[in-house]
UniProtKB/TrEMBL annotation:
Coiled coil: none annotated. InterPro entries: DUF4959, DUF5000, DUF5126, FN3_sf, Galactose-bd-like_sf. Pfam families: DUF4959, DUF5000, DUF5126. Residues 22-126 form the DUF4959 domain. Residues 128-229 form the DUF5126 domain. It comes from Algibacter miyuki. SUPFAM superfamilies: Fibronectin type III (SSF49265), Galactose-binding domain-like (SSF49785). This is DUF4959 domain-containing protein. Residues 264-399 form the DUF5000 domain. It comes from the Bacteria.
Amino acid sequence: MKQHVIQSTRIIILALILAFLGCSEEEGATAMESNTTPPGAVSNVTIENLPGKVKLDYTLPNDKDLLYIVARYTLENGTAMEVKSSYYQNTMMLEGFTGLSEQEVAIYAVNRSETQSEPVKVTVSPLEAPIFEVFRSIELNADFGGVRINAQNPTQEDIALLAMQKNIQGNWEPLPTSIYTSASEIAQSLRGFDTIPQDFAFLVRDRWLNVTDTLFTQIKPLYETLMPRENMLPVTLDNDAELIASHTEVRDLFNGGTLEWYDTYFTSRTVDTEDHLVTFDIGTVTKLSRLHIWQFSEPIGDQRLYYYLGAMKTFKVWGANELNNGDLSGWTLLGEFDVKKPSGLPYGQEDNNDLVAAKDGADYEISIDNPAVRYLRIQCMENWAGGDYMAVSEVQVYGNPDF
């Protein structure tokens, strides 16, 4: 009985100690979260001016309840900016500048009670933003049905190269075919325009809505036409791929059928060659603009899969004006293409975005810098099943035979 009383007393004392400690910690936490005394300011601020941005390094104040450092500044276009960095770091990157003027930055230390220090103000002089270098590099040339745009984006910034035309009210407005990219080299054609002189305007914008000056030009798009399929003929060279069976032949590539298996060109799945090639004559020497290709869609249940089996995933197009035994050293590489599956779903799974992108075929542009050719070869490098055989329903060839 006495031992039981002693144990009970110990339990009560331990509970009181824990309660006291809990209250102390709670009071300490409350005090920490209610600290209205401003923390010390950052010191030893160094500035590294970069294209369109600034890197700041600094020494943190010695405050136990320091939470973060914040820099506030205003862009040249009037946008208020705020960048935060935790107390684990002593550096931060400020972005969005045009680099055309000096800007003031206010730096604050903030504690856990969101109490700010006195600001440390510095003046930064960022270098010219990348959009201006992109703008100066723009080259514009007439292309088939439109305009060819070339530009350099060496820092691979996210930019919008806006192509504009006047609307019916006479105001310039961006075209839906404007270019949004972070590629280091921009080489793209905007097509679908009549072959009469067209007024265009171009500018470059970044993600902070900084813009360059505007480049105005007049372009007369080049004429293009669909090469008549009745003039196209099969050609067989020594290293062309073996066909899958007697029911398929090269002329199935341009017989007008885009859906059924009996209108499709198949190469043999059992022949293991380095690459599968098919050759055909387009009828006359032509300056090519594009190939419009329908991949075969495999019927699976009540749906058709377009990114499946022998449908081409990566392929090349070659051209020539004279035939040889098939040695590619005698042919000009007109283009190398990667087919993108919009949904990104695993192999064998496709959604409506994939259907919309594939059911009407797709354009594969040929650079205007390439020579005019009469004979074409399509070389399947890899299909969606991971092999090299191909299943192509139809090929249409566009260009200008009188170029």
